[in-house]
Structure formats: structure tokens, C-alpha cells
Design brief:
two-stranded antiparallel sheet; alpha/beta; 36% helix; four-stranded mixed β-sheet
Length: 156
């Protein structure tokens, strides 16, 4: 095993036990430089766990990569290319997380951006303003101003 690579198993082990069966991880070999993004993902899964505990029924797929995203299927591959301004995206039950784009943001913003996609996927909510409000309620690391996430503590 390459110590410089984050494995899918390692990512899965950080997901809260109660929702772990409902999250399938697909990832390119991720360098250790992406470890803060994985930690942000774990924080986001902890936040969403409290909101969906005992209510989650459907499994979601989470892909860690950079755009264009490739989801490996049993009978082929699904390739998705988002618009340039898109950081992460949820399409139905598939969450695409762009590790390269997220690395440009502070940790609390990374958590909020990931949590936003988990809210879309698990709660089946497409209304962006509502999702933003929910993220603000579920995660104290950000505050919402003008519909955008801001680090709650400006000293971070």
C-alpha cells in the first residue's frame, strides 16, 4: 500500500457508523495533500447524520476526483463534466466532489460545500436557498450572508 495515497477504505472508516452503509465511495487515488478535504467530508457526514438518523433509506454515491468526473459502473462508465464555476454537484443520488477546486477554500467552507451536496442527496431537496439555510443550521462553522457561506469565526 502506498502511504502517500488516501484509500477508499480509509475514507469509509471515517464516516459515522450509522450512515456508512448508505454511502458508497468512489475515488481516484487521492494524494495525502487531499487529507483536509477528506476530513471536511467526515465532518459533513457527522453533521448530516444528526439530521437523517434513522430516516435514511437510499444509498448515495460520492465521487472524489476532479472534473470531468468518471463514475465506474458494472457495465461501463458515466462521465460528467460540470460548468467551470461549479465546485461540487449532486445529481440524483450521486455526489461529485472536486478535490482540486475545494482545495482553494478554508476548511469550514469545504465542510459547508460538501454538506450542501449531502443535504441535496439524502434529503432530496433541490431548492438552493433552503439547502443553504439547512447547512447553516446543521454546521456551526459557517454563517450565511447574502446566500453565501462565510467562515463563522473570522480568526480561522
Amino acid at each position: 500500500m502506498d502511504a502517500d495515497i488516501i484509500t477508499v477504505k480509509e475514507i469509509e472508516e471515517g464516516i459515522p457508523q450509522s450512515i456508512r452503509p448508505f454511502i458508497a465511495i468512489d475515488a481516484l487515488p487521492l494524494p495525502r495533500a487531499c487529507s483536509t478535504i477528506i476530513e471536511a467530508f467526515w465532518q459533513a457526514t457527522t453533521c448530516i447524520e444528526r439530521a437523517i438518523d434513522k430516516r435514511v433509506r437510499n444509498r448515495i454515491n460520492v465521487i472524489f476526483a476532479k472534473a470531468p468526473f468518471t463514475l465506474n459502473l458494472t457495465n461501463g462508465q458515466l462521465v460528467y463534466t460540470p460548468n467551470n464555476e461549479v465546485i461540487n454537484v449532486c445529481f440524483e443520488h450521486i455526489v461529485f466532489l472536486d478535490c482540486e477546486k475545494m482545495s482553494n477554500f478554508k476548511f469550514p467552507i469545504q465542510v459547508a460545500c460538501i454538506l450542501e451536496e449531502l443535504v441535496h442527496a439524502f434529503m432530496n431537496i433541490s431548492d438552493e436557498p433552503l439547502v443553504t439555510k439547512l447547512v447553516g443550521l446543521l454546521y456551526e462553522g459557517v454563517r450565511i450572508a447574502d446566500g453565501k457561506y462565510h467562515v463563522a469565526d473570522s480568526t480561522k
